[in-house]
């Protein structure tokens, strides 16, 4: 039976919107009606752009400040719980979310950004929201802002992330694998060499072209026999500057990421976000290097710790890792296999969201009337795994 699914995202870069868009596509393909909303638009007028602008500024210009914010307000604190005041902004979005739910009457709400998950968790936890709520955690390193026990179900990119969500909330958490469009799975890593025979290496700066010394890293790769393709996102200044470097291709915003992945031998990543998991889906090995502050550094190191990627401590390490992974061989095959295994249940995420509407009980008592973690976790056993 078709359900009405409200998907809450956030225009913070492009990753959360990408996950929301792919979840929405899958839900619609399953016969469900979907409404996607940016949680920043539920804040008071002007607050959303201010939050986005502040975040972009500190990540780009004041990384030590963002690292301190992450350490103080977001980093996990073993044994101390979630912390009720991780994001007071959640309170400011409650009225508009309540109005949206009352007007559109969804059967289930799923959040792909931690602020949205805090809004739904707080409202659900005190009975103000009687619609079952899921949270898709896009991070490998799960920080406190993701975790609110008021939500019914957590969907996570890895088993380690799911374990952190279960321990932090006491709620059901299932490792579905990352959510990426099917084009990435079909692309596969191609020959990955330019006309001169140099291995093509992608360098990701995300939607905003953020990262320490991106152009310098690209130049070093070019000098050592690679064909670096720097993804500058919407940062035209970075694109122009990097494009002047010998042997470096600098690209602005592009919608053909599957094609780029198919042409590449290696991805150099600094954020553990959507570009990294898209590469894993396409069979492209990933090397973490010079990560952005805060959640980026935590995620890049967590992916390496789980054996999904290689972490390079310095430029010689990077050149060695890229050189090894760009060549056919056992090292490359191991990384490709580890990345492929991450998507073993990729197709389940949308079905679990829709199934939550059928299985969560939403009576007058709010979340105390819903089914417990054991019943919800059983959903994973009744879905088909991805090919």
UniProtKB/TrEMBL annotation:
What does the record give as EC number? 2.4.-.-
In Pfam terms, one family for this protein is MGDG_synth
Q: Which residues form the signal peptide?
A: none
For whether the record's keyword set contains Transport, the answer is no
* Keywords, alphabetical: Glycosyltransferase, Transferase
Q: Which Gene3D superfamilies match?
A: Glycogen Phosphorylase B
Q: Which residues form the Diacylglycerol glucosyltransferase N-terminal domain?
A: 16-172
What is the name of the protein in this document?
Glycosyltransferase
**Could you tell me which species this protein originates from?**
Streptomyces lavendulocolor
